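Running co-folding for iron/sulfur cluster.
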Amino acid sequence: MKDTLPVVSNEKKSCGRCQANGGCCKELQDPQSPKHESSILNAPEQVLPTLRRDGSRNWLSPSLAKGFYWQRRRWLAYGLIAFFVTLPHLRLNGKPYVLIDIASRQFTFLGYTFYPTDTPLVACLALMAFFSIMLVTALAGRVWCGWACPQTVYLEFLFRPIDRFFDGTLGKGGKSRSQLGGIRSVAKFLAYLGCSLFLAHTFLSYFVGTDRLAQWMQSSPTQHPVAFLVMGGATIGLLFNFMYFREQFCMIACPYGRFQSVMLDRKSVIVTYDIQRGEPRKRGKRDNQLTLDTLGVKTGDCIECGRCTAVCPTGIDIRDGLQLECIHCTQCIDACDDIMVKIGKPTGLIRYSSQDAMAGVPSKWIRARTLIYPTIIGIAFLLFLFVLSYKFAFDARVVRMPGAPFTVFQDQHVQNNFRIRLVNRSQTDQQYSIKTKDEAVVARWSNEAPLTLKPGESVLVPVDVQFPLQVTKGSGLYDTRIEIADTAGAARDIQVRLLGPQ
Ligand code: SF4
Ligand code: SF4
């Protein structure tokens, strides 16, 4: 699948993947093989690197290029894994840094808890996150995918090392999947299962908190069946993803990968092959002197070694131009730099650059989208601060009870019934009082016990408002204010409209 912004359109050559994944081309070209390309079941062309033309899975076993970028990616990946595992255990003001409590409909971020009434705040945060991704992509391409995405981090730095540990490296005495022996397969599966279980528990702790998770782990699954099923489902999902689906997640399932063509432009920094320098390719060139072939025709620096395709975790050839499958993991840069050093050429035949820079057009960091995105992020941030400054120690919203709008009593009093949605946003228990400022009107909570809420607790309080019949004389309407106050001194005045007989 090519992106809508191809840089290079080379004639398709030997992809080199057969070196890494067990000879798919050979099988397709063998007339005796059921996978022969003349078969009516074969697709006219290969649509995915992980799918052969006969529809069978093409398992990729990329080799590893331990170059400049890989070293840095590795340390970043281990740091991110440690961060992901540690974060649910950290506390700020007694609250977790991140807790997505779906059951209570609360979201805690950096020690601050958002409630269902905080939709504008959460919308501002979501806007900031969305346009930050757009900005980073416009500037640095899929740097997120290659360096920090959990799929890449766990697949390349946890699960593929497990593969290499048990299978070895193909071409260096390693075995393909089908050649793995029984005990080795079971041991490898157990390693996958252990990692998936650990990741699933860590993932669950973001939703239920580490304390509750520890309790659950020490008790029987029958006491918390839903959580147990969620954890089991997450483990199976992770196993499926990392054992079977793998790199296909980036090509088929990830929406970010599919949106990249609208987020990138010709000035975005991407991993790209220098076609001016590399073409025409000449196999087997060894030093600086051999820049002319035997017919005296100038040749490029690419020696067709196939190393850049052999290391690609998504099985593509970067020399075919910018492609949807490319996650900008920089493995082909490391692999090609290594080859360039060996043949005495400058490194950087494959490098970070932009399509414009490759075409000789000066690169510009400042352009319309790199100005518009930060402006939107700034506005969303200011809006976030503005809304936050209007947040009180508690939320209160008054709504009228359904049913009859008022009741007239024999003693010439009228009663309106309301409900107040009250949320304690403070860090301590609070007791609340509800009254009206208008002496003619009495508001009382129908339950006489003190109204006390724990931090984060939300209740619906039935409130009766009583007033003399003459208050609504004439129009049948009367506006008054209900005051709600907590023991810490925070108070809110809320206007309500009373209804009575005209
Ligand atoms: S690694 Fe470099 S030299 Fe080798 S095929 Fe790829 S681009 Fe050409
Ligand atoms: S083409 Fe290069 S940067 Fe892109 S996914 Fe393959 S190895 Fe990584």
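Result summary
The chain has two domains: 1-17+60-81+117-391, 394-499.
Residues 278, 302-308, 319, 335-336, 339, 349-350 surround iron/sulfur cluster (ligand 1) (CB under 6 Å).
Job closed.
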